[in-house]
Amino acid sequence: MKTRPFTNNERPPHFFRTQAPLSRDNRFLWVSLGAAFLVSTLVVVFALQFDQLFPRYNLADFRPAETAPYDIIPERDFVWVDQEKTAEKKNEAERTAPPIFQYNEDATTLILDKFRNLKEYLAAKKGNGADTKTVRLHQNLGTDKLLGERASAALLALPSQDLADTLEKSEALLLEALNTGIVSLKGVDRDPAGLKAVVIARGVGTTRIANERTLDEVITLQSLPTWLNDKLASLKANGREKDHIADIVLALAAENVRFNSAATAAARQKARDAVPPVQEIVRKNFPLISKGETVSPEDYSKLVAFIQSAAANLAYRMSGTLLFLVLIFITGAFLLGSTLAKRAYTRGETLFLILLGVLYLALAVIVLRVIPAESDYPLSLFLPTAMVAVLATIIISPNAGIAYSFLLAAVVFLVQNEMNGFLFAFFSGVAGTAAVLRVQKRIDLVKAGFVLFLVEGCIMAIISVLGVFPVGETVQLAVIAASNGFFSLILSLGFLPLVEHSLNSPTRFRLMELSDTNVPVLKKMLVLAPGTYTHSVNVANLAESAAMAVDANALLARVGGYYHDIGKVDQPEYFIENQDALNKHDFLKPSLSAAVIKSHVKIGVEKAKELNLPQAVIDIIAQHHGKGLISFFFSRAKAENANGDQISPEDYSYQGTRPQTKEAAIVMLADAVEAASRSLKKPTPAKIEKLVWNLIEERFHTEELLECSLTLHDLETIKRVFVAIVQGYLHQRIVYPKVKETAS
After folding, report:
1. Distance CA 33, CA 29 (A)
2. 203 vs 181: CA distance, rounded Å
3. Percent of the chain with pLDDT over 70
4. CA torsion, points 646, 649, 650, 654, in degrees to nearest 10?
5. Among 51, 231, 616, 640, who pairs with 506 as Cys (CB 3.0-4.6 Å)?
């Protein structure tokens, strides 16, 4: 609903007591949520950086080979890398990485060219057809020097076919040796005797092929004769031919595989990099270093890793925590939004919930720092979750209490990241909400505290059993949880009046106090306006019974009925229920009479604000006539209009707001029914039912009930309740005969 502007003589309502409920697009709502998120973010960031700002353990207090000044007990798991063992493994991997040798294709081609020249030279000499120019060419190439004179003469002495066969077999063995690779060990940076294997790489087009071989499989110039003898042994040739082949191969063979230092260095580095670090998970709550013990290099290394792990994981943890905080706010906006709450919260209620959540988050962070790091206690054991749920339930609604319990449990999980704490926080909040559903007096909160003492103890015991805690620890946790429940209710009892006053909330306790007819304003009404007082009491009874029947707030409807006409107290004589034989309206114009009648709504609202009544009650006072027409004076004005002036119904209508809630609408109907029923002559059930339904139907057709949430079924229920009650106080009585006095 909309708020009316304030005049110069009016005092604006308290900031927390604004009449206008919040809507989803209200700028104040988004500003409040944004400010709450900013503050929550600062709290969370401070909590995450607490170890860096105020470290529990100072690395400078510890030195290797010296005595530890105090215990180091990690409060979280962390990974420690054994740098020494890791370095040993990396060195071993580098040491065992085989050296890489590279084929030299140019060297192979040169060797084969020499063999071809030798073959041509021997063929020319054998046929005695070598001219001087050819001989000189081969002499310049050094072909005649490849073999000794004796070996050359022996080959030339062979028959042509035998020479061709010898050269063919020599070429095959030479090609095999070259393809296998004749390795040069020059330049190898390690003792060749210590090598177990080598890698020989060869490029074929754009493809690079690398094969690892043991040292026994590698051919060198030193091992070439042995390799050649093994090959000749399996060759079908006589001894003399084998000697010729050996002479040719040994004379022409040369190293065509050389050490590649750059590739070897890269392979060794790759081998180092492939070695995974030697890691150990250091568990929380186990002593890392004990006071009085000598700090070993390994202990010191673990301490360094422990302190550095917090800083290393800070950004990761912070991003995840802030995203979870965003999720909590989004969930809260949904759970506490008007879709599930069935109404929009006022500014005060919104600020109350936001402030409560931020304070709870800050308290959770503080408590987490106070709890010993080595303890396994759930954080929520030491937080008044039930108190917050109870306040939200009493101040706002049970739905708000349950929704807020879930959000607070999510906050606990955000801070401690522990499921037992989440479960206890949620169920303790739900238990707190359930414990205060039926309370009517403040003393009932103490009784609810004893109930919650037992319930929360049982909740924690069940959680401990599911977590397979030891029996002794289960009992200890259950006792702490039970104490938490009791003191949460006691704290809520202490904070409730403060919150009620700050928000001016229509809690059941405040409404019970206002429903006492001995309050000064009602006693004043009884003395100065007894007819209005009787009317108000009857309206309260009608409204309470009807509200109870349609599942509305019966206590609020009852209080609204008591106070709806307090604007009549200062001028009671202008209202018919307080008049005797003299009616002042007989001497006033209809327009002035209508103005006096209308003013009691405005005066009532002002008096309600002076009395500091809850906004819900003020709304009922302001809305109990809506925009209804004052039909008596409107009809009288038309009847007395001899000049034919235009008479506007708006001048004879109330200028208030149509009822916005079930309770305000019920009070409006009860007010009309109670007043009209007094005019019935010889009331009968049929007359009463017809009167009640006509009044309800009239309000329906004039759209006075358009903006509240009453349904047609509710109106039918309200009619039945009103008829039954009106029949009760308008019932017929027996006329007793007068007793004649007799002379004594």
Report:
1. 6
2. 13
3. 87
4. 150
5. 616
Number of folded domains in the chain?
A: 3
264 shares its domain with 404? no
Rounded to an integer, the average pLDDT of 198-220 is 83
- In this prediction the pTM is 0.64
The conformation of residue 380, written as its DSSP 8-state character, comes to: G
Q: Which of 137-141, 574-578, 611-615 has the highest mean pLDDT?
A: 611-615
Distance of alpha carbon 360 from alpha carbon 365, whole angstroms: 9
- Strand, helix or coil for residue 50: helix
Stretch 90-94: mean pLDDT: 91
pLDDT category at 583 given cuts 50, 70, 90 is low
Mention every residue, 6+ apart, whose C-beta is less than 8 A from residue 490: 445, 446, 449
Q: What residues have CB less than 8 Å from 626, skipping those under 6 apart?
A: 654, 656, 657, 658, 659, 668, 699, 704
- The owner of tokens 């906050």 is 411
- Residue 543 sits in a domain of what CATH number? 1.10.3210
Inform me whether the pLDDT recorded for 90 exceeds 90.
yes
Output the domain CATH number for residue 375: 1.10.1760.20
Q: Which of 238, 268, 298 is the last residue of a domain?
A: 268
> In this predicted structure, what is the pLDDT of residue 19?
42
Residue labelled with tokens 């940076």:
189
Q: Are residues 488 and 611 in the same domain?
A: no
- Structure confidence by residue, pLDDT tens digits, 425-445: 999 999 999 988 888 778 888
Q: Do 524 and 468 share a structural domain?
A: no
Nearest-angstrom CA–CA distance, 565 and 670: 12
- 328 domain-assigned: no
CA 40 to CA 46: how far, in whole Å? 10
Instruction: Kindly tell me if the per-residue pLDDT of 739 is higher than 70.
Output: no
My answer on whether 234 and 144 are in the same domain is: yes
Q: 89 in a domain, yes or no? A: no
> Which tokens go with 614?
């809850």
- CA gap 464, 586 in Å, rounded: 80
Residue 531 domain boundaries: 516-729
Residue 162 lies in a domain: yes
- Say if residue 559 is in the same domain as residue 468: no
Secondary structure of 659-676 in the HEC alphabet? CCCHHHHHHHHHHHHHHH
pLDDT score of 20: 47
pLDDT at residue 139 tops 70:
no
Tokens at 282, concatenated = 């250091």
